Amino acid sequence: MTEVEHVDVLIIGAGLSGIGAAHHLQEAFPGKTYRILEARDAIGGTWDLFRYPGVRSDSDMHTLGYRFRPWGQAKAIADGASILRYIRDTAAEAGADRHIRFGHRVVSAEWSSEEARWTVEAVHDGAPVRLTCGFLYSCSGYYRYDAGHMPEFPGVERFGGTVVHPQHWPEDLDYTGKKVVVIGSGATAVTLVPAMAEQAEHVTMLQRSPTYIMALPAEDPIANRLRRLIGSRRAYPIVRWKNVVVITLLYRLSRRRPRLVKSVIRKGLLRRLPPGYDVDTHFTPRYQPWDQRMCFVPDGDLFRAIRRGRASVVTDRITEFTRTGLRLESGAELDADVVVTATGLRLLAFGGVRLAVDGREVRLPETMTYKGMMLSGVPNFVFTIGYTNASWTLKADLVSEYVVRLLRHLDAHGYDQCVPRNDDPTVTPRPLLDFQSGYVLRSVDEFPKAGSRAPWRLGMSYAHDLITFRYRAIDDGALRFSRRPAASTAGRRAG
Fold it and tell me: What does R_g of the chain's alpha carbons equal in angstroms?
């Protein structure tokens, strides 16, 4: 009989969050054992999955980068290959890559209070694999990796060209000199359009409704100057905090004075788009700034492609595909050789892993998130969900730091288990992701709930979360600690 491997901590996912978690863990606890289970065959998660033209960060790398490893390149808005290399170099330097088991897709995890451990089931090469751990740490994000969102388009089967979703970009797709239609208006679409426009005959961004789009410098002049003056390691925290403050102020100003922010965005668009361009139709959303995530384009590359006539924007709805392109509700037709369906992502909580506690299935919509990183009634389990209004890694780093503090607390007091309990009937449930993007609205009911107040809210303020995660007491009354029954009994007998 094959012996089941046991580790102190099991991390699910070898992407940006998982590699960061591994670094924090082994820095704090060189004596603890850990493994990373990765469903795919490579490090990088999202940044290894997406291969479409121009793929890049939509956050600056001084905040998307790890707190503990400065981003040293000149470009602050980085391409996907550079980000992937950064993650892999981080894993190699820390030795975390030696702890990864690739091709291991976790399907279920069951907690036993009697044994104070998780039994985790994974699939590798079609065969089941079992591990046990004392602490389970999900860093799988919330995107579904095997399929993106693809609406049903009438007549798509009779289209004579190529239809491709950005999540499954074919390596051999040649669009040189061809007419391309990109369906969508989010971060993926505004990245694809200028990138494809460099080789295509023309690229049309077809959107049902506009998105807020702002231009940012691809390089941060303050960061680059500070790096030259005082070096990367000393400059990094200064630039990181500068960018945190800027994005926080923009977000808060957007929520409190949306008309002012809309006016600023509009003036920027008028400066960058051709004279007389219909900004109201194509770049003025119906919603308020930051009801959905704002798109940032480095050096205004999207607007530059429009000015040069290499790209255009059409705001309309699709009636059907034709043999040569798309027919729209307005009666207009768009000719296309290639149609890219940048129609969004699909969400999947914890990578679809089924959780159970002492033989009872955990129904996620019936749980409430504690500090946006643990589940009520689920012991020794932590997950990472990043910010929707700032860089993902800002939150991921804080969660990792909190996990270190939590494990130290367990060790110092001889506890085996910690579990959040909500005994306050005045705390009311709310959606975990209070965001109006389509990919969120389609799936949010399948996710755990947030609460109406701390510590059950999912925080969206880095400064507030930094104080909460790094400095406030671990034992706050909502998080309950205990020893497994066998350990308690042994202790009484010894006494």
Answer: 24
* Across 68-95, average pLDDT: 94
> In terms of domains, do 166 and 114 share one?
no
* Cα(393)–Cα(245) distance, integer angstroms: 16
- How much is the pLDDT for 344? 79
- The CATH number that applies at residue 284 is 3.50.50.60
- Written as one letter, the residue type at 182 is V
What is the span of the domain harbouring residue 119?
5-145+346-494
pTM, rounded to two decimals:
0.93
Q: Is the pLDDT of residue 492 over 50?
A: no
For 14-58, write each residue's pLDDT tens digit: 999 999 999 999 999 999 999 999 999 999 999 999 999 999 998
The pLDDT score that the predictor gives to residue 80 is 94
d(CA 289, CA 286): 10
So what's the pLDDT on residue 436? 61
Sign, CA dihedral 389-182-268-315, equals negative
